């Protein structure tokens, strides 16, 4: 008898977990998009267009892809590309800072 109750609770928890995980993908990646835009802006201000153009272009391309995915309601893809945009922007910032210290 107790096993049946345990199974019911376990099923309830599993359903809740699945619902929660799917809900995460239905929300637009607002914070990730904002983080990517801010990271790109900081990299530009640090001179990435001149010192790390390759990384900055990659960041901008990922952000553009994220925006398109967001427009298409492909939130998982948008989130992934926004995170990549931020990473590339941080690479551009780091390369710009290293270039400045070399001079």
Walk me through the structure:
Helices cover 89% and strands 0% of the residues. The chain contains 5 helices and no strands. The protein has one domain (28-102). The protein has helices at 2-26, 30-45, 48-51, 53-71, 75-102.
Question: Which secondary structure elements does this structure contain, and how are they paired or packed?
Answer:
Elements (H helix, E strand, L loop, with lengths): L1 H25 L3 H16 L2 H4 L1 H19 L3 H28 L1
Give the N-to-C terminal Cα separation: 76 Å
Count of alpha and pi helical runs: 5
Structural class: mainly alpha
User: Main β-sheet, in a few words?
Assistant: none
Strand content: under 5%
String of helices and strands: HHHHH
Radius of gyration in whole Å, from Cα?
20 Å
Provide the helix percentage. over 70%
List the domain count as a whole number. Answer: 1
Shape verdict: elongated
Ranges where pLDDT stays below 50 over 5 or more residues in a row are none
Mean pLDDT: 87
Number of strands: 0
Name some characteristics of this structure.
89% helix; 103 residues; mainly alpha; single chain; elongated
């Amino acid at each position: 008898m107790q096993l049946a109750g345990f199974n019911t609770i376990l099923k309830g928890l599993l359903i809740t977990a699945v619902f929660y995980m799917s809900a995460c993908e239905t929300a637009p990646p607002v914070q990730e998009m904002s983080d990517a835009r801010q990271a790109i802006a900081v990299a530009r201000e640090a001179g990435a267009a001149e010192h790390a153009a390759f990384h900055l272009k990659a960041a901008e391309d990922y952000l553009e892809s994220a925006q398109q995915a967001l427009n298409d309601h492909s939130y998982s893809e948008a989130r992934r590309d926004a995170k990549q945009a931020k990473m590339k922007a941080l690479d551009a910032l780091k390369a710009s800072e290293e270039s400045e210290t070399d001079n």
